[in-house]
Write a structure and sequence with these properties.
Number of helices: 5
Radius of gyration: 22 Å
Shape: globular
Distance between the termini: 29 Å
Strand content: 15-25%
Helix content: 10-25%
Order of helices and strands: HEEEEEEEEEHEHEEEHEEHE
Mean pLDDT: 74
Largest sheet: 6 strands, mixed, barrel
Structural class: alpha+beta
Strand order of the largest sheet: 5-9-6-8-7-10
């Protein structure tokens, strides 16, 4: 999570010092006490029931865990955080106040206000309870359970696609805050975004941050609004691989669907340059090949291929000439498959 220098720079001194990026000093929301009074005048602490699907983390302020000692998880996170959708993208004007150049410890940061592509790789961290309920640089209240993030120079407000290189997971977050201010750290995401990216316990992952330009947002909105094509065969089963540790992906029954022999041909050793859809990751090559054959009828996914990366066999579709085209192809996949493609660039 944020280093002490970040905390001191952006929160301890107040954002007014940083050329009025945002107001600061709002008192953090205090969670309701779970101390129950006793007739004798004492109190007994009733344990808070935690969501069993969340990783067990050391308490905030304990000095343990993969985050800075005075920050950490909330006392009673809401249920079903893994199901929180990505930030709802929309094109909106940038804030004049929040996009002025500012200085932190002698270094000048100039927020981006053009429409040029921006991709960055580095360490992604998360911030939580210490800032929960305080104002962000945008003036919005920070909610650690929403899909937001802090970045030193991306426009406020804007949206970014964050991909964990370690886990392969990908999310879209709303940029509404400034930070982190550390040489190797490129973005601070919310608690929920870190959960979905897979690095809550570790505290950080290597990530790729990609700015969503207005054209990208238009393409995403258009793809969501477009009518979904009806698959030629609708007999779909959700067969769960029996192998321990296998990625569970709903698949189309191979007995009901024809298999395109050209699509099911041996996969290339590596992907050509372009945009691809990651459709699954498997620990066994034969299961990956089965997944490829069963998705073959969905021709909008492009050429399907399996590429080995370490101990995993990843199923890809593509290539596509642009991210927008890949997003449209992903949107064409029926929701009934249960598969949520991830757009990647090679």
């Amino acid at each position: 999570m944020r280093a002490p220098v970040d905390t001191f720079a952006m929160r301890g001194l107040g954002l007014a010092v940083l050329l009025t990026l945002a107001a600061c000093g709002t008192t953090p929301q205090k969670p309701a006490s779970n101390n129950v009074p006793l007739p004798s005048g004492g109190k007994v602490k009733v344990p808070v029931r935690q969501d069993p699907t969340l990783p067990a983390l050391p308490a905030a302020g304990s000095g343990r865990g993969g985050y800075y000692k005075d920050d950490g998880p909330g006392d009673n996170p809401p249920p079903n955080l893994r199901d929180v959708p990505d930030a709802e993208v929309r094109n909106e004007p940038y804030s004049t106040r929040s996009n002025r150049p500012y200085v932190v410890f002698g270094k000048t940061y100039t927020p981006i206000t053009d429409n040029e592509p921006f991709t960055q790789r580095g360490t992604g961290t998360w911030y939580g309870k210490k800032f929960h309920g305080q104002r962000t640089s945008s003036g919005e209240i920070y909610d650690m359970y929403k899909m937001t993030a802090a970045h030193p120079t991306l426009p406020i407000p804007s949206y970014a696609r964050v991909t964990s290189i370690d886990s392969g997971e990908q999310v879209i977050v709303r940029i509404n805050d400034r930070g982190p201010f550390h040489a190797t750290r490129v973005i601070d995401v919310s608690y929920t975004a870190a959960l979905k990216l897979g690095f809550l316990g570790k505290g950080s992952h290597q990530v790729v941050v990609e700015r969503l330009l207005p054209a990208d947002i238009d393409a995403i909105l258009a793809a969501r609004a477009a009518p979904k094509p009806v698959p030629s065969v609708v007999a779909i089963s959700i067969d769960t691989p029996v192998e321990t540790g296998e990625v569970v992906q709903p698949v189309v029954s191979s007995q009901m669907l024809p298999v395109d022999a050209t699509v099911a041909a041996p996969a290339p050793a590596a992907l050509e340059s372009g945009f691809y859809l990651q459709l699954g990751a498997y620990s066994r090559a034969d299961n990956a090949e089965t997944g490829r054959a069963r998705l073959a009828p969905y021709t909008a996914l492009g050429t399907l291929g399996v590429v080995q990366a370490g101990n995993l066999f990843r199923l890809y579709g593509g290539p596509f000439p642009s991210r927008a085209e890949a997003a449209r192809a992903a949107a064409s996949l029926p929701e009934s498959t249960g598969i949520k493609p991830i757009v990647i660039q090679r």
